[in-house]
Amino acid sequence: MPPLRITTVVGARPQFVKAAAVSRAIAAHNAAGPDRPIEERIVHTGQHYDDNMSRVFFDELRIPPPAVNLQVGSGPHGAQTAAMLERIESLLESDRPDWLLVYGDTNSTLAGALAAAKLHVPVAHVEAGLRSFNRRMPEEINRVVADCLAALLLCPTSVAAANLAREGVRRGVHAVGDVMYDSVLFNAKLAQQAGGGPARLGLAPRSYYLATVHRAENTDDPARLAGILDAFSRLDRPIVLPLHPRTRKTLGAELDRLAGHVRVIDPAPYLDMLMLERDARLVLTDSGGVQKEAYWFAVPCVTLRDETEWVELVEAGCNRLAGADPAAILSAVAAFESAGASLPPDRPADLYGDGRAAEKIVRLLTG
Ligand code: UD1
């Protein structure tokens, strides 16, 4: 049989982590000598282009190098998405793969899904069915459209599959688990061997809080960003803040006025970030992936958003939604601290599958 040809479109940091898990499962599939091997072609849109937002992830995670980099770079949503759409369309026209594989909810996801669907190339969407129910988020629009266009909807949780059912989408829906969980299980030991983490910053395990802030809803709203930084300055432990370039640009010279216990560092490579998460006393974040990684390392998480797609973490008492209001952030931290900065011992252990999501995805793609 001729090989199954898959074009994978990635562009932003979290997608590199997710795609690495599936590329590894594809390599395992091919190594087993199947009737139908898989030929994967990775297309990098160039949405993230700084070395520490992109190259370092390909290196550390040993992702096959992209066949093509579209180098679209930054820009307003319409212009950025349009540039990707045009270039992905012309690639797909000449290549005509069996599947177009996209991840998550970024502008790269939207462009890949839209270009493929118009050319009748079937779309597989990893991380389908997540909803914040907040259409002011660009991510929500991207994921709703990608789900409408996808033929194979690969959900990380049963909540995500139920969201799709409520929207009348049942065909092609599979709850496979979360590929980010596969990735943490695979990489935690490697991260430990690589060293790094808090020791490099002179910090002892469980002595510091780890924070990330990059969502447009926070960085592009001065009142929200000020509220979050105000809360950070009032917390009484060291805070490690690996800073996304978007946030760095917004803050500019204000960065110099942050309280001394807030340690701003460059965006952390994946393995380093895993160690920073594992050893943190508590995590404060507006990232989706970091909320789950905190749970996998049994670290409490305060989410700097008004809603989350990962509702099961809130229900299990592992995550508290605090938005950007300093009083709410401080009280969420205090609530976790009063419980010894540990998670409820009776929390469910298997919210995100069994660590074999990528394997299941490959089976569905080849099936
Ligand atoms: C994107 C995703 C978001 C995801 C995040 C992970 C969309 C709409 N958003 O947000 O869902 O959580 O990636 O990081 O797709 N920049 C650089 N260097 C880079 C990349 C970005 O300096 O390598 C700066 C640019 O000034 C750019 C800004 O960051 O304007 C925003 O980048 P963009 O890719 O548009 O969105 P993210 O904020 O990274």
What can you see in these coordinates?
The chain has helices at residues 13-31, 55-60, 77-95, 107-118, 138-149, 158-166, 179-194, 216-219, 222-234, 245-251, 270-278, 288-296, 311-315, 326-338, 357-366, and strands at 4-10, 38-44, 68-69, 99-103, 123-126, 152-155, 173-175, 209-212, 239-242, 262-265, 282-285, 301-303, 319-321. The protein has 367 residues and is an alpha/beta fold. The protein is globular, with a radius of gyration of 20 Å. It has 15 helices and 13 strands. Helix 1 (13-31) packs across helix 7 (179-194), helix 3 crosses helix 4 (107-118) and helix 9 runs parallel beside helix 14 (326-338). A seven-stranded parallel sheet has the order 3-2-1-4-5-6-7, sandwiched between helices. The two termini are 13 Å apart. It binds uridine-diphosphate-N-acetylglucosamine.
Concise summary:
With 367 residues, the chain is α/β, with parallel strands linked by helices. It has 15 helices and 13 strands. The strands form two sheets. A seven-stranded parallel β-sheet has the order 3-2-1-4-5-6-7, with helices on both faces. Strands 10-9-8-11-12-13 form a six-stranded parallel β-sheet, sandwiched between helices.
The distinct bound ligands, ions and cofactors come out as: uridine-diphosphate-N-acetylglucosamine
Strand content: 5-15%
Portion of residues within helices:
40-55%
Secondary structure: number of strands: 13
Q: If you compute it from the alpha carbons, what radius of gyration comes out, rounded to the nearest whole angstrom?
A: 20 Å
**Helix/strand/pairing category:** alpha/beta
Distance between the termini: 13 Å
Strand order of the largest sheet: 3-2-1-4-5-6-7
Q: Given the C-alpha coordinates, what overall shape results?
A: globular
The helix/strand order is EHEHEHEHEHEHEHEHHEHEHEHEHEHH
